[in-house]
Amino acid sequence: MTSLKNCPAPAKLNLFLHVNGRRADGYHLLQTVFQLIDHGDTLHFELRDDHQIRRVTELPGVPEESDLIIRAARLLQADVLRRTGALPPGVNIAIDKVLPMGGGLGGGSSDAATTLMALNHLWQAGLSKEALMALGLPLGADIPFFIFGQTAFAEGVGEAMRPVKAPDCWYVVIEPGVAVPTAAIFCSEHLTRDTPVVIITDFSSHLENRIGLKGFGKNDLQQVATKLFPPVAEAIEWLGAYGDARMTGSGACVFSAVATENEADAVLAKVPAKWKAWKAKALDRHPIIEKL
Ligand SMILES: C[C@@](CO)(OP(=O)(O)O)[C@H](O)COP(=O)(O)OP(=O)(O)OC[C@H]1O[C@@H](n2ccc(N)nc2=O)[C@H](O)[C@@H]1O
Ligand SMILES: Nc1ncnc2c1ncn2[C@@H]1O[C@H](COP(=O)(O)OP(=O)(O)O)[C@@H](O)[C@H]1O
């Protein structure tokens, strides 16, 4: 096999996100549900005759060298070299970028995770899922989740994950048109870091009954982000008229769950023209699994 086309890099929504504390190294201890949705970027991989790793699509604001896709590919290339003593073939990577940057949808992390999974396959590198997750973690806290590949409850800094069956529903997502830098939210002096840890005993049924449409928990990053970025607050207020509306991750995107696609269409029809908005279906599993 010399190419892998149309590899999905789906977005995630944080159905709730609790900040429970801070580690000595400054990283925050979280509890969250990562919900996979059927909306995202698409990547295409084509092997080269040399050993170069190249991005063949322009991504405004992200130079090739700092792109998480390229950095992920280089990490895997170095790992293969270390283990086998030989460099794998080079690769051209094209991307259809759909997800907004700094949107809290995990776009960059999902692109990197798809790159690691696709190249592990194309290069026949043989890394286990756990090894790929560990390789990706230093590049971004959300990367292990996308490689884990299932809607999941996560704890710690996001590395301890258990699959969860979230409600089979649709989401309306609004892009408020601002990019929120994750680090600025986490280092705010106004961030609360003391939400009590939720102890889950009956895992399979407990969460299914409590998250999703009923809006379990809250997003502790939302208060800080809405103060710094008023368009996020405005979008939450507008969408709040149709259900429980909240921010995903560190923002900026805002979502609300609805039971059916028709309900999603009805809300979308009313979204003010100044915002980009779309619908997405809840997914249990990463769609790349069917391709590899
Ligand atoms: C908040 C979350 C929730 O899903 O998502 P996003 O909104 O960014 O998608 C993630 O935990 C973010 O993941 P990611 O965007 O990959 O963040 P990273 O690049 O790893 O970290 C950016 C910065 O955020 C802070 N950070 C991140 C994660 C964490 N648990 N504690 C932190 O304090 C650190 O200052 C770090 O330098
Ligand atoms: N392939 C990529 N796609 C998106 N962002 C990238 C990529 N590579 C590097 N980045 C950088 O990562 C930052 C965070 O992007 P992203 O993951 O989309 O946001 P978020 O973590 O809020 O969902 C961007 O502002 C950009 O500078």
Automatic annotation (TrEMBL):
Sites where the protein binds ATP: P100, M101, G102, G103, G104, L105, G106, G107, G108, S109, S110
Keywords linked to the UniProt accession: ATP-binding, Isoprene biosynthesis, Kinase, Nucleotide-binding, Transferase
Claim: Kinase is one of the keywords in the record: yes
GHMP kinase C-terminal domain: residues covered: 215-276
UniProt enzyme class: transferase
Biological role: Catalyzes the phosphorylation of the position 2 hydroxy group of 4-diphosphocytidyl-2C-methyl-D-erythritol.
Protein name: 4-diphosphocytidyl-2-C-methyl-D-erythritol kinase
Organism: Duganella violaceipulchra
Lineage start: Bacteria, Pseudomonadati, Pseudomonadota, Betaproteobacteria, Burkholderiales
